[in-house]
């Protein structure tokens, strides 16, 4: 008995026959991948086999006491400066959005001043504040001073570093927080007001929790940037990671190996911060469309690699 035909009378395929989908061949991707691997091999081989990089010296100083002490000071500066920046940024953002023109104007002036001048200038200014104000104190204008201290003893290089880094960061964080607050639908603020909630309670319980989804990613980037920006305190002589490396190679003239040591520690710390940022973003992205985006692997986040199905995106292309 003859089997039923898979074609119609006109010779065309029957509608009952399953369609065989042929995947698109992206030959350009394979060529680009081979070229990138070839170039990567050349670069890695050059770095590993280059005797001028003195990898033995790198290993000797990677855990040197001075390097570790500088690393510790760098982390302390980063954490405290970001705390100052985040707290100050939230206050400035709330002031900037205040209906009071004086409050809003004061915040706007602060942001304009600290974002409009170089950070290195601010660090030097705070370090030499005693030239303008030899003594700092509190008291009645043109009257007795209640509390006071010599500026040179009060503004140490560490305090000057915190003031320069933290107050400058607050200006940038203010705009980040303000953008996050403005991303929340204004109707929620009106609804909270109709329920009798105060502006402070509305901001704390309704606006900020939703705005965090927008605030967290740039704040993570600012933290990573702050980790590296701390190296600018070299201009005022505070001892941190880069100063530690410079101090050592000023004695033994091993400039390149010590710079590699500092770079390796910076890469390690920024990688840790990136992983922490990913976990925080995942927590605040639950229940939103951004939840899928935050679940990429660490390689995708830090290096841009995408593996597995859908790695090339929905659109395909070479």
From TrEMBL:
Domain ABC transmembrane type-1: 71-277
Subcellular location: Cell membrane
Membrane topology summary: Multi-pass membrane protein
Transmembrane segments: 27-48, 75-97, 109-133, 231-249, 255-276
Keyword list, A-Z: Amino-acid transport, Cell membrane, Membrane, Transmembrane, Transmembrane helix, Transport
Matching NCBIfam families: HEQRo_perm_3TM
The family this protein is said to belong to: Belongs to the binding-protein-dependent transport system permease family.
Protein name, as recorded: Amino acid ABC transporter permease
């Amino acid at each position: 008995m003859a089997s039923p035909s898979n074609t119609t009378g006109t010779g065309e395929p029957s509608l009952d026959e399953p369609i065989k989908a042929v995947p698109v061949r992206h030959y350009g991707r394979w060529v680009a991948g081979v070229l990138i691997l070839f170039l990567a091999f050349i670069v890695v081989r050059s770095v590993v086999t280059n005797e001028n990089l003195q990898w033995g010296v790198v290993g000797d100083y990677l855990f040197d006491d001075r390097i570790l002490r500088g690393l510790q000071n760098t982390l302390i500066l980063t954490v405290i400066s970001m705390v100052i920046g985040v707290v100050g940024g939230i206050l400035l953002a709330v002031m900037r959005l205040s209906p009071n023109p004086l409050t809003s104007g004061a915040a706007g002036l602060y942001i304009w001043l600290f974002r409009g001048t170089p950070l290195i200038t601010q660090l030097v200014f705070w370090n030499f504040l005693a030239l303008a104000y030899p003594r700092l104190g509190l008291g009645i204008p043109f009257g007795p001073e209640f509390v006071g201290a010599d500026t040179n003893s009060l503004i140490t290089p560490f305090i000057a570093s915190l003031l320069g880094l933290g107050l400058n960061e607050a200006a940038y964080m203010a705009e980040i927080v303000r953008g996050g607050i403005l991303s929340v639908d204004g109707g929620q603020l009106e609804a909270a007001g109709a329920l009798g909630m105060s502006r402070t309670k509305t901001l704390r319980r309704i606006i900020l929790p939703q705005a965090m989804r927008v605030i967290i990613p740039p704040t993570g980037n600012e933290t990573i940037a702050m980790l590296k920006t701390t190296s600018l305190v070299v201009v005022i002589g505070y001892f941190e990671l880069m100063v530690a490396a410079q101090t050592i190679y000023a004695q033994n003239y091993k400039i390149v190996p010590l710079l590699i040591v500092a770079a390796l520690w910076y890469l390690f710390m920024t990688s840790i911060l990136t992983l922490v940022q990913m976990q925080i973003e995942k927590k605040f992205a639950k229940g939103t469309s951004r939840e899928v985006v935050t679940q990429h692997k660490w390689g995708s986040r830090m290096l841009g690699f995408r593996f597995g199905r859908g790695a090339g995106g929905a659109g395909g292309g070479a």
